[in-house]
Amino acid sequence: MRIRAACLDVLRLSVLAITSAFIVACQSPVERGKYLVAITGCNDCHTTKKIGPNGPEPDMSKLLAGYPEDFKLPAPPNLQPAAPWGIVTTPTLTAWSGPWGVSFAANLTPDQNTGLGIWTEEMFVNAMRKGKHMGISRPILPPMPWQDIAAMSDADLKAIFAYLRTIPPIVNHVPDPIPPTGSE
Question: Is residue 59 part of a domain?
Answer without folding.
Answer: yes
